[in-house]
Amino acid sequence: MFKADTLYFNGYIYFTAFKKFVYGYFSVKGDRILHLGAGEVPDDVKYENKTDLGGKYVIPGLIDCHMHIESSMITPKTFARVMVENGVTTVVSEPHEIANVKGLSGVLAMIEAGRGADMDIFYAIPSSVPSTDAEHETTGDIIDLDAVKELIKHKEVICLGEVMNTNGVLNNPRDRQLEFVNYLKENRPDMPLEGHVPRISGTDLNHYVYTGINSDHTDHGYDEFMHRMMNGVFYQIQYITAKEEIAKAIEEYSLYENVAIVTDDTPPSTLMEKGHLNRVIMYMTELGMKFENALYCATATPAKRMHLYDRGRLTPGMLADFCILENTDGIKPLQTYKNGKIVYDRAEVNSYADCKGAFPKDFYETMKLGKLSESDFDFKEDKPNGTYTVNGLQTVYESTRTPKFSQKAEIINGIVALPEGTNKLFVFERHGKNGNVKAALAGGKCVVKGGAVATSYAHDHHNLVVLGDNNRDMAVAANTVIDNRGGFCVVSGGKVIAQCRLEVCGLMSERSPLEVAKDIEAVEEAMRSIGYESYDPIMSIGTMCLPVSMECKLTDMGLFDVPNSKFIPIVE
């Protein structure tokens, strides 16, 4: 009864309780850990086979408890194959991107497309579809309370995804997301309720956490981070929000139970070149966390947060999810095991699963826009000829924050003449709902010269977004994305200089992740070549129209003042 299938010995095993590596052994029986011990193997440990670790290191499989598969722009099974190469054996994905295009059917299709993957994929209920409401943005579908009731029937669904409409939660007792929270507290009190809490503090933060939503993954300095710790907020730290003062605070106050290391969004170029959760772990060590402590925050802590009590540590009875490392200078597994079976071996030639046709047919036909003409990119405003103050948004290099931007501009025969050094930003409703089109000015660092960029990957409504300084290039870029059934396109001088096809809902591709990554790298380089200056061009243009992200955004309904939750006139 207690005879192991395989014994692993002569290695350094991560002992979770002590947050340190200990020379010893462990064994696997079926899909579970059977034995664990320090030192040499006792005579009474029985096993069928044995593996000499040769002094190598063994860690539990990594767990990412806040991320979005769609951000990788590849489909679930292919994504899973890349994950196990990086030591990740469990993720909790929040599919609000595909839900904004296809609603409940989108979430169910993601679950189905991920069955049989090399890792465990759990899901969060998308709480923010749309991110605000139907009066502020048009999405392909919505997630309502009936959808929530359906999703909690599925064993893969284990939490409520990030509640992004902070204003609604704090100021509207009938807010849709608050309705979800109250329903789940009553009917599924075991489910964690995930938050998205930028900027707020003091009594506002008290009130937000009082609702039961008690996590955050947004960007904060030391004081805001400590304020969240004081208020019992579970903090999920990602690469772009990692800071030295936060890493040191985690160590100083031993906050390992209160913080998980996560990825949130990882574009394909980063994923294939730099890694995933393993990359963030090592970055936290550069900022001051001890490797063993950072590892705890990417295994045991997220497992407990998501009530996944069968994983996250290598102790008897736990799932045999583990990685074998050459050393602790980085997490680049020699081998990764899931449920006791090897799912990645660096010594073998890598291949990616063929996942063609993993989604229903209509998921490949979501760009419901006809061919656009150059005149469709006239910035039209019904005003008498004259000089006006025209509003828009200003981009910055280092973040996705876009303050309000105003510029004097001529209106001639109902068309805004583009001021020097600015771009036109257009949003076309592409779900076939109402045909809305809105335009505004864009200024700042992320403006292009002699070109245009278009994408269907526009958080979170995923309408067609086009940025440029001339009608011809904007039309070519937009029509290329439409013809490709979604994706990105960069145009200069009337010619396509880079593109990436995302044929599944305009968000993901079933092609090889290497091919998708190569295309996205080309898109980023092409954007920079025509003047788009950003730390992350893909994320920057993808969030210009996200009306829950600071500070001023354009949707198909108009120019939205996020802090004050109201529309701003395009022309004063």
**Which stretches are poorly predicted, pLDDT < 50 over at least 5 residues?**
none
Tally the beta strands: 28
Give the averaged pLDDT, no decimals.
96
> Percent range for helical residues?
25-40%
Strand order of the largest sheet: 19-18-17-21-20-23-22-24-25
Q: State the major sheet.
A: 9 strands, mixed
End-to-end Cα distance, whole Å, is 79 Å
Rg from Cα: 25 Å
Proportion of residues in β-strands = 25-35%
Number of helices: 15
- Note the overall shape: globular
Oligomeric state of the chains? Answer: single chain
List the SSEs and their pairings.
Layout: E1 4-15, E2 20-29, E3 32-38, E4 47-52, E5 57-60, E6 62-67, H1 76-85, E7 88-93, H2 96-113, E8 120-125, H3 145-151, E9 157-163, H4 166-171, H5 176-187, E10 193-195, H6 202-210, E11 215-216, H7 222-230, E12 234-237, H8 244-252, E13 259-261, H9 268-274, H10 277-286, H11 291-296, H12 300-305, E14 322-325, E15 335-338, E16 341-345, E17 386-395, E18 404-412, E19 415-416, E20 423-428, E21 437-444, E22 451-455, E23 464-468, H13 471-483, E24 487-492, E25 495-501, H14 513-529, H15 537-542, E26 552-555, E27 558-561, E28 566-568
Parallel strand pairs: 1-4, 1-5, 6-7, 7-8, 8-9, 9-10, 11-12, 12-13, 17-21
Antiparallel strand pairs: 1-2, 2-3, 5-14, 14-15, 15-16, 17-18, 18-19, 20-21, 20-23, 22-23, 22-24, 24-25, 26-27, 27-28
Helix pairs in contact: 9-14
What does this protein look like?
The protein is of the alpha/beta class and 572 residues long. Helix 9 (268-274) packs across helix 14 (513-529). The radius of gyration is 25 Å and the shape is globular. The N and C termini lie far apart (79 Å).
